[in-house]
Design goal:
This protein is an alpha/beta fold. The protein is 33% helix and 18% strand. It contains ten helices and twelve strands. It has a six-stranded mixed sheet, with helices on both faces. It has a six-stranded parallel sheet with strand order 9-8-7-10-11-12, with helices on both faces. α4 crosses α8. The longest helix has 12 residues, at 108-119. The two termini are 22 Å apart. The protein binds 2'-monophosphoadenosine-5'-diphosphate (ATR). The site of 2'-monophosphoadenosine-5'-diphosphate has 14 residues, from α5.
């Protein structure tokens, strides 16, 4: 696609950024919709986040996505945060407004919930308690999104229990449902009566051992999801599907979290389709 001098430009800041699938994802939509725009990878070293963000309006960028390790560091360089980014304490999407001011948003939780809605028809967070494994940055966004979507209770378990307690304390008061921290050793029992099981730990990712979790107590109707998408079918999802649970893989979270940014920068609400999924996967 040949750009005009009026092309809208956005991109993704990360370090390393070479593994990001976002340029391929946004590039597919730009081409599909015939938009005069570009979405570029930006390799921003760990100490360069603030400087890079402040350069966006000066360079005429519409905005950017932000990925590891910059999601928290960019906050100090922004003029404002939307309510969700403020609660999560991390930003994945930046908008440059007409007056040059910078707004930070967090669409990871939106992507998480939209992926479940799209992947498991009829799924609702209100169906019952959710079990969330892990207490890192991804878990933060998942907790806020599940509480906002109407989960009646969240059971939070992390190998290092104190980290889960800290997360529950930090978010707790601001969430619409109780967060109960349970012991990692009791993870199999924690599945009893759950309507949703979410793995946000690195266990099951390529190069890591599988999650060590017996699913026997999990109701068969419970939805199981993993936010990891390398591999697409983690050992957890395979085991859950084999016993008849509905499962949703993590790739859709990446695809859906990208929608609000694309719409804001390029002026068109993009669609997540099976063809897009295949195209992003082929990118390796
Ligand atoms: P992110 O911010 O992307 O979610 P992270 O902060 O590195 O990633 O968190 C990784 C998660 O995987 C943590 O919850 C971590 O547990 P600890 O807080 O105890 O480190 C979890 N994790 C990593 N290795 C694990 C293992 N062998 N067993 C169980 N959980 C593990």
């Amino acid at each position: 696609m040949i750009l005009s001098a009026k092309a809208r430009v956005a991109g993704v800041m990360g370090w390393p950024v070479a593994h990001s699938r976002s340029p391929r994802l946004h590039g597919w939509w730009l081409e599909r919709y015939g938009i005069d725009g570009a979405y570029v990878p930006m390799a921003v070293p760990p100490d360069g986040a603030a400087e890079a963000v402040r350069a966006l309006p000066k360079l005429g960028f519409r905005g950017a996505n932000v990925t590891v390790p910059h999601k928290e560091a960019v906050i100090a360089a922004l003029d404002r945060l939307d309510a969700t980014a403020r609660r999560i304490g991390a930003v994945n999407t930046i908008l440059v407004h007409e007056d040059g001011t910078l707004e930070g948003r967090n669409t990871d939780g939106f992507g998480f919930v939209e992926n479940l809605r799209a992947g498991a028809s009829g799924w609702t967070a209100a169906a019952g308690p959710a079990v969330v494994l892990g207490a890192g940055g991804a878990a933060r966004a998942v907790l806020v999104a599940l509480a906002d979507a109407g989960a009646p209770e969240i059971r939070l378990l992390n190998r290092t229990r104190e980290r889960a307690e800290r997360l529950a304390d930090e978010l707790g008061g601001g969430l619409a449902c109780p967060v109960r921290v349970l012991d990692w050793a009791a993870r199999a029992e924690a599945l009893d009566g759950a309507a949703l099981l979410v793995n946000t730990t690195t266990q099951g990712m390529a190069g890591h051992p599988p999650l060590d979790l017996a699913l026997d107590a999990l109701p068969r109707a419970a939805l199981v999801t993993d936010i990891v998408y390398t591999p697409l079918e983690t050992p957890l999802l395979r085991a859950a599907a084999a016993r008849g649970n509905p499962v949703v893989d993590g790739l859709g979270m990446l695809l859906h979290q990208a929608r609000p940014g694309f719409e804001a920068w390029f002026g068109r609400a993009p669609e997540v389709t099976a063809e897009l999924r295949r195209f992003v996967l082929e990118g390796g």
